[in-house]
Each structure stands twice: as C-alpha cells, then as structure tokens.
Amino acid sequence: MQFNITHYHIYIMDIIDLVHKQKSDFNELVHKRHSERFYFQKNKVNMDAKKLLDDYCSTLTLGPFGTKTIIASTDQYMGTFKVIQYEGDKTQCPYYYIGAIASNLANPLKIGLIDFGYNFEKLILFATQLGFGTCWLGGTYHTAEAENCLKLEKGIPHKIVCISPVGVCKKPSEYGFLQKILNKMLSGAHSRIPLHKIFFVNDFNNPLRPDHPPDALKIQYSIKAKQSALMAILDSFRWSPSASNSQSWRVLFMEKEKCFAFFTSSSSSFYKFIDIGIGMLHWEAAAIEYGMKGHWDIDNTLKWSTQYFKDLKIKLPSFCTYHFAWVME
Ligand SMILES: Cc1cc2nc3c(=O)[nH]c(=O)nc-3n(C[C@H](O)[C@H](O)[C@H](O)COP(=O)(O)O)c2cc1C
Q1: Is the pLDDT of residue 188 over 80?
Q2: What is the pTM assigned to this prediction?
Q3: CB within 6 Å of ligand 1 — which residues?
Q4: Distance (Å) from CA 135 to ligand 1 centroid
Q5: pLDDT number for residue 4
Q6: CATH superfamily of 190-328
Q7: Atom of ligand 1 nearest to the CA of 188
C-alpha cells in the first residue's frame, strides 16, 4: 500500500506556513524546540495563541496509518514527581494537552503509537512556533486525572499515550538555583548521536556522508536552508525528541530502490513506535520544506520484510525493527 502524502501534509503545511510567516524555516523550528520543564504562571499565556493551538489540535484526527487520535486540553495539574515546575499555586500550572488513540481492532497498538507520535509532534511543533514551551510526558503524569479530562463517553475504547504541558517557559537565565541543578542533570538530553550513527547507505556498515552523497541524492533541491537541503533534512530528523533521548532510529538509504528505509534498534515495545512516528513527521515536513519529493511506503508485510533484507545480505543491527520507507519520486 502506498501512502500519498497529500492527505496529511495539509496539516504539516499549517506548521510550515506559520514558520514562514515568522521568517523562519522548518529546521530552525526543530532547533527551537526543547523539552521545557520550568514555567511561568498560567495567566501569562496569550489566549489568542492558545485558541490557534486548540483549533489546530481539532484537525489532528488521523495519522498516516489511519488511527484516530484524540487530543484534549485542560487547565488542571497533571504532572507527577514535580518534573514540571511552575510559579504560584496549582491554579497557575501550565495548560496540559492530553493525547490518546482510539483502540482500533484493524490496527495493532504499535501502528497506533506511530500515528500518535506523528500527530502529537505536530501539536508540539505548532505550539513551539506559537512561542509556547512543551515537554513530551509518557510516564510522569496522573493517568486517572488525564482520563477524566479526556471526557470520552464511557465504552469508547481508547488508550491515553502521552501528554504535554503548554505554557510560557523560563529561559535558562531565569532559572532558580534548584532549576539550574535539575537542568544540569538533564543536560544529556540536549545532545544527539552523530549523523553517521543514524544514516547509512545500502548496508549498516556504510554511513551516509552528506558531503559525499550517493548520486541519487545529488539533486538540486530548492534550498531555503543555510546548509545543503539534504543536510537540513537529515538534521531535522536527527533532532527529533525521543523517550529518554534513546534515539534508536536508524535510516538506510537504498540506492537501487531510491528509498530511505526507517528502522528502530531498540528492545522497547512501546516507546520505539512513538519515537519513530515523531521522526516520520520530522522527515516528511523537512522533505516538503526542502523539496525532496517522495511518498511513504507503509506496507511492511510484503517487500520490506526482515526476510527481504536478509535476502539482500543486509545485516540488521540488534533489536532492529523495520517500520516504513520514504520512496523518492
Ligand atoms: C515518547 C516520549 C516520552 C517522554 N516521556 C517523558 C517523561 O515522562 N518525563 C520527562 O521528563 N521527559 C519525557 N520525555 C522527554 C525526553 O526525555 C526528551 O525529549 C529527550 O531527552 C530529548 O530532549 P529534548 O526534548 O530537550 O530535545 C519524553 C519524550 C518522548 C518522545
């Protein structure tokens, strides 16, 4: 089955249009986003911007694999373990956006999680461009309260996957003493593994070198970035957030097929699917922004099976799972 990006990229275009209106580009937006854990009082939130975000969220109903996504916002405190800090009493906590997927018997949970990662990251990036701080939270929140806030009719099968605070966050220069210490402890999260450990050509022993790309990638893209367009796409993917900053995504460019195959190399049975969904969105948005025409091939049962890679004598990294491919046009 081939997935035509025109169904979904309309909502990616909303992000890109907003970015362009503010004289920026997608790669700059990717670098603007960090997990923000220290917030000012809720009453500093610009309600016009929040309304724009709420309207945008109402469009994020389906992911590329067809799973229904449900997003609701609340002004109640949701975090646990004081991971998210704010000034004042509980009424001044940031807003929280709660994300769930409808349980769909036709699609296994892992597919739903990829769709969720893809759609919730749209919310995160749109909020970032509106000037809000956000932080993906997969574990540190009150599930029962999140469940109440979703206000779904009883009996509708669904699963809450992650939530995020949305509010006006502090700059590092505005952190208090303890916040500076906490931030230092989290400083590992501000880094990424190098490109050559993520992107490969034809097999996993051959890193992709953007300064000497294979012929199929030597294309004149419309360059809006301050770097080469290929570099901007790879970099926009590399700076995707991932749970515990695990960065388990691996991408193999297959020269003959002119496609990028996306894998994760992780034993996690939950977060790796959300993480690759987030990466999927970064890749697609960057490909649109920098002009690498293509479409998703999301059929992982036929040609792109593990056996297929074995037949090609491609040795997969440990705990490697194939997810989908971007076929260049
Ligand atoms: C699916 C997912 C779940 C996450 N869950 C949590 C969480 O429960 N608590 C937390 O503090 N950060 C959480 N994070 C944030 C990651 O730790 C963070 O994205 C990563 O360290 C990279 O840092 P950055 O977002 O600043 O680039 C999560 C991120 C993702 C993608």
Answers
A1: no
A2: 0.94
A3: 34-35, 83, 135-140, 162, 189-190, 241-245, 271, 274-275, 278
A4: 6
A5: 47
A6: putative nitroreductase (tm1586), domain 2 (3.40.109.30)
A7: 21
Please, which residues have CB within 8 angstroms of residue 38's CB and are 6 or more apart in sequence?
A: 85, 86, 169, 170, 174, 175, 179, 183
Q: What is the mean pLDDT of residues 2-18?
A: 70
Domain extents in the chain: 36-185, 190-328
Which atom of ligand 1 lies closest to the CA of 139? Answer: 8
- How far is ligand 1, taken at its centre, from the CA of residue 65, in Å? 24
Of all protein residues, whose CA lies closest to atom 19 belonging to ligand 1?
A: 241
Q: Whose CA is nearest to atom 30 of ligand 1?
A: 243
> Which atom of ligand 1 has the smallest separation from the CA of 278?
31
Q: Hey, whose CA ends up nearest to atom 7 of ligand 1? A: 137
What's the pLDDT tens digit per position in 97-118? 999 999 866 668 899 999 999 9
Q: Provide CATH code, domain 36-185.
A: 3.40.109.10
- 158, pLDDT greater than 80: yes
pLDDT tens-digit series, residues 126-155: 999 999 999 999 988 888 889 888 877 666
pLDDT above 90 (res 222): no
